[in-house]
């Protein structure tokens, strides 16, 4: 799936006074691009399958943006298990970017808030690894809401970042530290496997334990419930069959040893509802944990990002101000928010070679 | 991995009075063969990847056994998600067997205890699907222990089958019904993903939620703990890297956002121990549930099958008689127990074309 978006002509205070920058968010399942001026592009890119094609893909995609524009990179794709470890992953990503962008200024965002050149980046692996949440949170804290919790629900994970006095408030920098404190919830709106969310599903009044196989994901639950558009041409599903309602229902049925022959639409919706509830519960747990850890008030403002907003539990929203990034920045930018953030942040810093 | 085993010269009462039969257990991840005389062979066979090669593979493998011997088939491989549904899966398996065994008598085991020819089999899909547990349990009930619980811990699942008065005591026939009653526990000693077993892992005194990715399996925990031999040439692992202690440790570390650079052998063993405990707990829960459902005494005899015996919780074994099939039948046969069972059962029935 490839998406090219042209933003409506919005003026951004900082980017309008600096030279434009192209931000790239190199994830484990997607490549997302955004210019500081508000143009964005994204594509599915399964790093664990296609990492050798990364450089070539970057060349293709960057041709959609102005030639020779400075490049700001943030990443999470180094965690893909095609890489023995994160060091090898970061090196591969940096090398691929450098190969794709000769004669162009490139900078890598660090969770310290700095930008590194390629040599510095590979010397500071753990600072440039898994940095995209920090880039987004830093821009949001500076520009959208200085004191809030940023909740970014993506396809694979949910970031819950405490923001205080215009800055990122958590000292946790790595994925591991964030898994421990609860600010990285490894549940998203698409890729999360059903067997990681529930042990049992109720069906026709009885509880069936689920098959611990990668037979279905949260995406299937959302398609069955009409929260995600059917996309029959897209086969990025657990069984490589179409992402349409029929096959999504079939995939959910497989989780309890059945298939489309016996599980009808209504039964599939019942299964999907339970799966969505389990996903929301994990996210709710994370929000409460972070809120309590940082002594935030129960009605602390939430800034919502990502395309999985329907996973935000209603209980969590009640009695709060919720600022939606897609309303603040427009849908086009919101779809590639960390890429936009890293581009915007780079326009604001003096960069020397 | 291919294994050819010649049994020691043991005499089996029934098979010695009937013509030999070759049994095939066509699973979702393995093909297992055994003759009623006690010769066995097995190979890994990822149905979801290689289903088109099934017929050809069967031809190759059957050449290890006597030409023209009658064939008894049992299966579970129809649940692989390369098949839209079980009907299509059963049809594909039956067609592949028929293509591979022209001019040979073939019969398909049904959970009703009958043997069907190919035409009957495809007309009785739900009876021949997922039948291998029933074949093994029927032979065990008739020959090993008439009143017991059979606990068969395989690579992917654990079957817990109540046996009473020499027969299979559960009325549940399908995978779904068995998932509901608890007699099919979808936890095994190799393929079960870690993210389906635990939500958190303790590491250095803190709880980290796990990444809901297919980064590691129970097999990695067993390799790290020395319960499974290292096999560097075998890459049937989550990341397609070798099944050795180094890579198994690296895979376990990935579950909590780390890698081999920071997680040493001792730390990996601590992670592995937690994973094994979670797997044992699921199996223990299943055994207790089935025991209670069928009114079995707490000290009911267990018949243990499968190569995951170390997943049988100690609490469950205490104060019971445990009969090990590998001691009863020899290791060679025990490795392909359902294939052996279906071969033996077919020698005991009159088969007409």
Automatic annotation (TrEMBL), chains A, B:
Cross-referenced Gene3D superfamilies: 3.30.420.40, conserved archaeal protein q6m145
Pfam families the UniProt entry points to: Hydantoinase_A (PF01968)
InterPro entries associated with the record: ATPase_NBD (IPR043129), Hydantoinase_A (IPR002821), MfnF (IPR002756)
GO molecular function list: hydrolase activity
Domain Hydantoinase A/oxoprolinase per the UniProt entry, residue ranges: 72-347
Name this protein carries in UniProt: Hydantoinase/oxoprolinase
The organism of origin for this protein: Stieleria varia
């Amino acid at each position: 799936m490839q998406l090219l978006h042209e933003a409506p002509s919005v003026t951004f205070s900082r980017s309008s006074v600096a030279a434009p920058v192209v931000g790239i968010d190199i994830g484990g399942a997607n490549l997302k691009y955004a210019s500081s001026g508000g143009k964005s592009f994204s594509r599915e890119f399964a790093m664990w399958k296609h990492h050798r094609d990364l450089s070539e893909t970057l060349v293709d995609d960057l041709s959609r943006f102005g030639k020779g524009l400075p490049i700001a990179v943030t990443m999470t794709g180094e965690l893909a298990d095609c890489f023995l470890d994160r060091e090898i992953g970061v090196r591969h990503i940096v090398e691929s970017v450098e190969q794709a962008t000769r004669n162009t200024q490139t900078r890598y965002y660090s969770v310290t808030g700095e930008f590194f050149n390629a040599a510095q980046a590979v010397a500071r692996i753990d600072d440039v690894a898994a940095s995209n949440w920090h880039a987004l949170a830093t821009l949001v804290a500076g520009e959208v809401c200085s004191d809030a919790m940023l909740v970014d629900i993506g396809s694979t994970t949910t970031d819950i970042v405490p923001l205080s006095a215009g800055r990122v408030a958590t000292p946790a920098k790595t994925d591991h530290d964030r898994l421990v404190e609860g600010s990285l919830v490894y549940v998203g709106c698409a890729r999360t496997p059903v067997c990681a969310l529930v042990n049992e599903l109720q069906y026709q009044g009885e509880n069936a334990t689920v098959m611990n196989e990668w037979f279905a994901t949260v995406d299937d639950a959302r398609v069955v419930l009409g929260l995600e558009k059917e996309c029959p041409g897209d086969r990025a599903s657990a069984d490589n069959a179409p992402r349409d309602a029929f096959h999504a229902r079939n995939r959910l049925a497989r989780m309890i040893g059945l298939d489309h022959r016996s599980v009808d639409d209504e039964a599939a919706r019942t299964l999907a509802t339970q799966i969505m509830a389990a996903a929301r519960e994990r996210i709710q747990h994370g929000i409460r944990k972070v809120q309590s850890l940082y002594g935030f008030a129960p009605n602390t403002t939430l800034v919502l990002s990502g395309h999985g907003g329907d996973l935000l539990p209603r209980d969590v929203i009640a009695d709060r101000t919720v600022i939606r990034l897609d309303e603040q920045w427009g849908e086009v930018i919101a779809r590639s928010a960390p890429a936009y953030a890293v581009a915007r942040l780079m326009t604001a810093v003096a960069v020397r070679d």
